[in-house]
Amino acid sequence: MTISKILLQYSKLLKSSSPILDVELLLSKTLNKPKEYLYSYPEKKSTAFQLSKFKKLFSRRLKGEPIAYILGRKEFYGLNFKVNPSVLIPRPETELLVEEIKQFAISHRPLAFIDMGVGSGAIIIALAKNLKKGNFYATEISSPAIKIARQNAKFHKVKADFLKGNLLEPLIKLKNSDFILRTSIIVANLPYLNKNEIKNPTLKFEPRLALYGGPDGLKYFREFFNQIQKYKLQPLAIFLEIGHNQATKIKKLAYLALPKYKFKVKKDLCGFDRLVIITN
Ligand SMILES: C[S@@+](CC[C@H](N)C(=O)[O-])C[C@H]1O[C@@H](n2cnc3c(N)ncnc32)[C@H](O)[C@@H]1O
């Protein structure tokens, strides 16, 4: 079968929001060629082996598996990240966190950046690549996720400490944790979906541990602010990605732990509350 026939025939079978692009990506992966190749050689015939390989990838997509898991990679903040089903696929809206921190860092010069729940490493690696100066730390409860984050850091030649444990706990155990935490920006895209949102069938391929924030979606925010209060932590700033209806409740939690801090909500491009920024 020729490349142009595969593109035409298989894209008609997909119910995805971007069927042509999906088939292009799957065929590029099969042939191990860039997308441009498909349009430069539309009449080239695929071998039986190539077609069977393509069909295997295609059937995964047909069952709804995200294209990023099939390709094994996802772009975030202009960088390429390895992903697999043990990590959340980095979302474009999370790029807002990186952008806001970049701006803040220019004027406040934090010495350290701490990413809680690092997943693939997208946030901390994008920060390290763009800011260059500073010490970069990340925590994560899932061992397979930490493994992917370390591989991504190595690929991007980024130096960061990846620590296994619950939210800030592994950092608090470090010898110089007092100094690190006082001079740091804490950033997190914690699991924040509630018991209804988690039922969305499009999320079934991603780890529940990365998405579900308990019945009201706030479980991890409570735990995080409890740690702040318990250890009397005074970071320079906290940047959190949140669900569109969580800002008021998170503000209350933050106020109990850090009554003297300022609180700002930032909307995403769709006009939804997306970030809370808590500053000293
Ligand atoms: C929403 S994902 C974010 C992943 C990544 N930071 C990103 O933005 O693409 C949340 C991450 O938090 C991790 N996580 C869940 N509970 C945790 C805990 N108690 N302590 C540390 N990390 C946790 C999950 O394994 C997952 O990788």
UniProtKB/TrEMBL annotation:
Pfam families: MTS, PrmC_N. InterPro entries: HemK-like (IPR004556), N5-glutamine_MTase (IPR050320), PrmC_N (IPR040758), RF_methyltr_PrmC (IPR019874), SAM-dependent_MTases_sf (IPR029063), Small_mtfrase_dom (IPR007848). SUPFAM superfamilies: S-adenosyl-L-methionine-dependent methyltransferases. Keywords: Methyltransferase, S-adenosyl-L-methionine, Transferase. It catalyses: L-glutaminyl-[peptide chain release factor] + S-adenosyl-L-methionine = N(5)-methyl-L-glutaminyl-[peptide chain release factor] + S-adenosyl-L-homocysteine + H(+). It is an enzyme of class 2 (transferase). Residues 94-180 form the Methyltransferase small domain. One of its GO terms (biological process) is methylation. Residues 7-72 form the Release factor glutamine methyltransferase N-terminal domain. NCBIfam families: hemK_fam (TIGR00536), RF_mod_PrmC (TIGR03534). PANTHER family: HEMK METHYLTRANSFERASE, MTRF1L RELEASE FACTOR GLUTAMINE METHYLTRANSFERASE. This is peptide chain release factor N(5)-glutamine methyltransferase.
